[in-house]
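Hello K.,

You asked for the raw outputs rather than the summary table, so here they are, unedited. I folded two proteins back to back in the same session to keep the settings identical. This is the first:
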Amino acid sequence: MKAVKYFVVIFFSIFCTAICAQNVNIGAEITAALENNTYLSKLNYPKSVFRFYTDNYSGYHWTDSRQRQEQSKIALLLLTKADHYGLSLSDYHLEALSLEKLEQWGDFHSEKNQKERTLFDILLTDGLITFINDLHFGKYNPLYQKTQIDTSRINGFCADEILSIARMRTDFQGAILKAQPNLKAYSDLQTYLDRVHTANDRIVSQTEIGKIIINMERLRWINTQSAYYIMVNIPSYTLELHQGDEMFGFRVVVGKSTTKTPVLESEISYFSTAPDWRVPQSIFRKEMLPEMMKNRSYLADHNYSIYDGSGNKVTVNASKLRQINDNPNNYSITQSSGQENALGAVVFRFENPYSVYLHDTAQKQFFDREKRALSHGCVRVENADRLAAMLLAYDGAEYKVSELENAILSYEKRDFVLSEPVPIIITYLTCLIENGKLILYTDIYQFDRSLEGKFNQNR
């Protein structure tokens, strides 16, 4: 009996030694490959791949045993469905990855085709990291270059960490897909595109699929993850207030093609009633000065006041008007609050480098037009008072709604500060899903062609 026990101990000692030695060899094989420029040149995110292996033991992760192959199969199938997510199949090394090749390495102890096996494992890792980054940031993000995404954590996001966490989850695929934007417009488009591909629906044209792809890309550029946000879509002339599963829509006026409303993200922390309008210098010089020179009463008729460079109010007569016309940059113009004020009864301000904001308007008739690219860049909101009241109510300050209404009626200047800022997204989407149907919008600023060209080159 002792002899049997002794044999068992010796056997397992030899077995464990062999396994440990093999693990060392496997680790060395991966490490050597990640230091080889031939391997690295094939990768989209070499630094992320290196971090993934060094942080999770630098051995095989997708070809090390049959137990792991179920997860590896899910990974491969996910990459082969990249087009269901508006992405290109050519970006994920599928020319070198397949289920048939994966089956070759089901036996943990096999030494067959070690270099090919190493390359397969590394390429699958890079394919998944690329897929995660593309889902989250998009492929052509104007804010972040690929090298920046590969090098540093951006807004708390790191694809190799997402992949490491996903491998420990029961729902591996679900953990990876959480990298996608948490925006209703995005999930609607993705669901629609998935159905088109799954059903092989030829009713939807390639042109329409192309529109879906570029607009999903634009939505990936948005960083906001909150379920509470304001989204302005320029081509549809709409503003949506999202509060969890609820959405409230408003019509808007946006910038003309010559004075485009910019795409941006920010936060609304307060809004004001009875605002004065400090006229931008470009509007002052190009539009108002000619009117002032033609009509002496133009300023008084519209409640405008002129100020010099020191901020002193200027009395305008014929002589002064000539001075202003000769040196307009030395003066500024402000419109007082009231019925004629261009900002209307309420303005929503937020930090941005373009000096734009949301506001009410005295020109309510513009909201009845189908095409509403009419402003100098700011966004005019129909029923802005209703939007302001809803923001107060959601902020837990419903008791201030009556104060807001009174301030609007009496043209009283008041600032209403929100305890929790509201994310605001101004975006450019030329298609959306409404009631399960794809709706296309006019590309009013002609932005689509450039982005479509980039995706077409990558097919």
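The second followed immediately with the same parameters:
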Amino acid sequence: MDIKTLEELQTADERTLVFTPLGLGGRMRPEDCADFQQRVIAPLELAEGVAERTQQKFEQLRAAYSHGVLCYELYTMVADQARLTLEQALRDRFAAYYDSVTVEVRERGRRGSSGRVHPITVTSYTDFFEKFQAAKGAELRADSSQRWQDFNGMLTGLLVWARREGLIRGQRNRHTERALKALRNIVAHGEYHLTTPVEAARELSDLAEFINHLWGHPTPGGRLYPAPVQRAVVAIGWSDDGERTIAGHADQLADAVDDEKLTYVLVRAVFCPGGVTDPNLLDFDARRASTSFPAQYLWGPGPREQAVAWLSEHQPEPDLCDYLDQIVLVRFHDGHVDLPVYPGVAAGLPPAEQSGAWHALRVDRGLDALTHARALANAPAGHASIGECRQCPAETLATGDIVAVLEAARSAGADTTPQIVPDVRTPFADWLSRAVP
């Protein structure tokens, strides 16, 4: 080991200086680099109420990241420790969830018999886990009214427990969480590697989202566990030949120049130019979940003057939309898989369009349901026809006729109040509905 002087230890690492606000580029001044890298992680804050140990560990990681300008290897240490902190956060949340509560732990039974039951009062996770291991625990429940659940006390068991208790959610996140577990194991048993400031900052950001969601605080604009997004009142217009489709805030429609005399439809949708905008907004279909975020039909189609008059009379307001774990229905009939629809829309469809076999699915994006349903129609190995699918970000709640799946959707918390919605779609959506075999 080379012994460096204090002055040498305080010298900026040249490898960090090339990471600029505009990407890889020319060398930044050390003082500018230090300021920039601290600002990158400054918005990452844990919510009030997060366990003190988890808070302390996160602050330790932020401090180490801030010193990466002096030692590039610190970014790798931060990224690796962030992955290991995942389990600590889950342990602390478990202890807080069952604080001073006596839970029941059962041994694994032999040959179909039930094992012995051991009551354990949770005071800390370390104490609980020692008693859990001593009891040879394999299953857990908080009280006798609950079903026994598999539990191993390790990262896998804690992730399953947190999801079962609704502390983490999202169908796509189920797969992300498996990847996080695998990455954590790589860190624990892996070899030498080097991580960039960009990767370290992403790991810290994802860790903050995960921790905050565990304690009931989704992240506004988050990547993994986002808070509900705002839906604006949007006007979508298209030309008669279907070659031009536009979208804009509906309150600007009265002042718009409409030389082409477009046909308009009014919707609530995620639309914020410069911010979060639904990438599939121009695929809007009033009856089908064809957009990335849930979009709600309001009025149309019709000319601009009628749209402006309707807006003036009804004055619809923006709202918030929580899109994780939304429930949609998919119909199988005549050898075809239809585009997904929302439960209320399906309940209001004409009887002829309610025939056939249906699936009730929990997804984060409507079209994720289509992908899973088409996989089921082709009966490939590995796709679950009921419950959580390990291949797709989808969970099948029920299959059967429209009555059965609507009841399953209602039991899962979906609004199944019948909605009479006209069969209105943009030219892009019309093409999509005809393209889906």
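The longest strand covers residues 229-238.

Happy to rerun anything if the numbers look odd on your end.

Regards,
P.
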